[in-house]
Amino acid sequence: MYMKHIKFNLWLLFAICALMGMSGCQKFLDRQPLKSTLDDLNTGKLEAQVLNMYSQLRGAPGFATLPWIDFHSIRGDDAAKGSDATDGEEIVTEFDTYQYSKDDWAPNEYWNNHYTMINTTNAAISTYIEDSIENPGVVIQPATYRNIGEACFFRAFAYFDLVKTYGNVPLFNFPLISPADGLKDRDSSERIYEFIDSNLAVAAELLPLNSEDYGSKYPGRLTSGAANTLWAQTYLFRKQWDKVVALTNEVISSGKYSLLPEFSDLWKDDVGGVGKNSAESIFEAQMSVGQGAATNESVRFGSAWGTCQQIRQNGASNDWNLGWGWNVPTEKLVADWPDDDPRKRKTILYSGEFDGGPQQGGHGLTIPEYTDADGTNGLAQKYWNKKLYTGNSPAMLAYTGYTRLPDGAAWINHRILRYADVILMLAEASNELGDGATAEANLELVRDRASGGEGEGRSIVPKIPFVDQEQMRQAIKDERRWEFAMEGYRFYDLVRWDDALEELGPEYTNRARFYPIPQKAIDLTAPDGGTPILTQNPEW
Question: Which residue of 3, 342, 375, 445 could cross-link 454, Cys pair, CB 3.0 to 4.6 Å?
């Protein structure tokens, strides 16, 4: 058993040295192994660094609130800023009409938060390497393997966001200690993807199959299924279809995930809700609220993810002023989406109408009327994102002790990776490889679930038989649009399909597929006032 540990420690160290590019790793090859075994080195330090990554994912704006929504959702044709006309009005110019800014709070936060995450992961991995070099005979404990897997996942996750958003970006595989460490130009997107691959290979190897392996104290921590799902997404963007098929089949064959029978159950985070960390969940940012939260701050553990997308009401009455009101459905989404698809009423909340009750993801309440863009005497938006809708849920009011839910819904988890995406990625890749039967079968799995709880028969969301590759390609594109509406997939899907110019209107141009690098980040690489080392995307 000891030799098995030593061999795996060697493999892991070699793999991570390659990721880090640390010349000091060579020292390990020149050392004789110690004869004694030790308990895990710096377990508390490494665990704390990893928990900080989860904290950043939950609370940093570039991952959890308005900047994330701006980049991932509002740039698409299915989502708009929302709120009222004067709240964050600069976002409309920057993200709805593609007049990108090189220096504004939202893009600056997005860039900074992602590189802060990367630096945290680099520091954690560096901690492991330094300890391993100094103590080459140590028997590493399973918890440390998991921690390294988590760090590699988060590093790949952050870089995948960056390469999708900016194209070529600086690659740092070491912790930044001094300002001089950050003086670096952009690396090619091909190099970034190679780095992502190497990190996810380690993450998939080291992360457990079951999040329960971490114990009950930390629900929803990363698994090998999350690493393989993210990895499949990266290959989807590179059109490496065979690798998408292999990775999605690995997730499916694990037997750990399944579609919930009822679509609206995915979003039930209230008391007794089945949506949190469900069988369909592959990875979620964790939030919670406990009984009696109105008077007990210690049972509140959340972020503004839910708050920023709740209904916002102005004027004399504020009974429905539940949040900031961002990320709302567009008229285009409402018009394009067939009314006979049950997911439409479970995704879009209509001002002035009954919320549909529990069968449609509602709470049995009637929404105030839309009035105008300022919402002077009613609501400023016709439609709201129902996937994060709480209303003044009677059950939640009783549970928390509030008379009206303040600060929106800080307990709502951010669904980052879910099983429906695995199924539709497999359908898309199979179709591109000429396997129409597999594409049809997996598309049908998602469409069949869409009819759940809405009556008998398949006439509600009819089956789409395979006719030819182009017909199935369009069906899969439509299915991704309906299944993931308001979840932040649409813009990047349109870009990777080369459909953005056609779908996003005349204000969108091809250079808008990438956002310009923040000017402040560029300026920081010219500390003496000379020419900055970090260069701007040449299209900007």
Answer: 342
